[in-house]
Specification:
207 residues; mainly alpha; 9 helices; binds adenosine-5'-diphosphate; binds magnesium ion
């Protein structure tokens, strides 16, 4: 199975997972936002899955770019441009295919773009709280610890999971949840949660 075909399967698996978690993501966003994260994401990923399954013999860069463009036009809100725009931008790192090195470059570029666009840092109670530990763990596991990319991805998923838990006790400083001030404390961030689900599906598809 080539990387393009695997990427199509990954997008389809993400779409199915997000659909299964739609209500949970909506509940999380109704506590500290406007209750649209589940619907936004489910609609966007279903459209992305449809778009990539229509591609003929696609390479991985095209699959990721197509998914990103579709999310960008379908998701809306804060998370649409963050997910979609960053995927489109980072897809260029995969132009020569998928290797451990290009996967690290993709992850780092994706994170960089999310932070460029959203201006959030660790501790602001956003998807960045899941992404930063995940990307750093992935890079370190591949480059320093010389782990197999799949093992590195598994460690990155575990790091993202800790990042999601870390969003619960902290106060939001970016996005809609920040309007609540201290009342955002005690709630799990929806975008960090959806980021974790996406990563879990990447791992499940790759494994
Ligand atoms: P909206 O808040 O516009 O309705 P969504 O509900 O789809 O958008 O997404 C909300 C999620 O977006 C939040 O849970 C958070 O993780 C993420 N988010 C919001 N603002 C930012 C930001 N500036 N940087 C990074 N992530 C952000
Ligand atoms: Mg929302
Ligand atoms: Mg909204």
């Amino acid at each position: 199975r080539d990387a393009g075909t695997a990427a199509v399967a990954a997008v389809e698996n993400v779409a199915a997972r997000i659909e299964a978690e739609r209500e949970h993501l909506t509940d999380l966003d109704s506590a500290i936002g406007d209750a649209d994260h589940g619907g936004n994401m489910a609609r966007g990923w279903q459209a992305a899955a449809d778009a990539v399954s229509d591609l003929e013999d696609p390479d991985i860069e095209t699959v990721v770019k197509t998914a990103g463009k579709t999310l960008l036009s379908e998701v809306g809100g804060a998370s649409g441009p963050l997910y979609g725009g960053s995927l489109v931008f980072a897809s260029a790192e995969l132009e020569d295919g998928l290797t451990a090195e290009s996967a690290v470059a993709f992850a780092e570029t994706y994170l960089e773009k999310v932070q460029d666009r959203g201006d959030a840092s660790v501790g602001d109670k956003t998807m960045v709280d899941a992404l930063v530990p995940a990307v750093h763990t992935f890079k370190k596991s591949v480059e320093t610890d010389d782990l197999h990319p799949l093992e590195a991805l598994a460690k990155a998923v575990a790091a993202a999971e800790h990042g999601v838990s870390f969003t619960v006790p902290i106060r939001a400083a970016k996005g809609r949840a920040s309007y609540l001030g201290w009342r955002s404390v005690g709630h799990q961030d929806p975008g960090a949660t959806s980021t974790l689900y996406i990563m879990e599906e990447l791992l499940a598809t790759a494994a």
